[in-house]
Amino acid sequence: xxxxxxxxxxxxxxxxxxxxxxxxxxxxxxxxxxxxxxxxxxxxxxxxxxxxxxxxxxxxxxxxxxxxxxxxxxxxxxxxxxxxxxxxxxxxxxxxxxxxxxxxxxxx
Length: 108
Hints:
CATH class of the domain at 38-107: Mainly Beta
CATH topology of the domain at 38-107: Jelly Rolls
Strand order of the largest sheet: 1-8-3-6
Structural class: mainly beta
Shape: globular
C-alpha cells in the first residue's frame, strides 16, 4: 500500500496551487501501477472536457470554478473544491476555470 508523504510536506505549492511532486508520486502509486502509468493532461480552454480512457481518478491541481461529471447522458454537478475525481471508462469531467489547472489521470 502506498504511504503518503510526511505530514510536513504540503499537498500544494503555495505560489501556484499545484500538487507537489511528493504528493503526485503518492497519488500515482495509489493505482498500484506507479508514476509511469499516470497521464499529465494540458487543458486547452475553459470549459475543458476530459474523457476517461479507463477507470481511475482525475487529480485537479489548482483552482476550478465549476465541475460536472457526465456518465452516459446524465450530468452530475460536483463541488469545484474536489481535487480527486473518480471516473469510470467513458465518463466525462467538465471543468471551468479562469487559470488552467494542472490535471493528472491515474488509471485504476
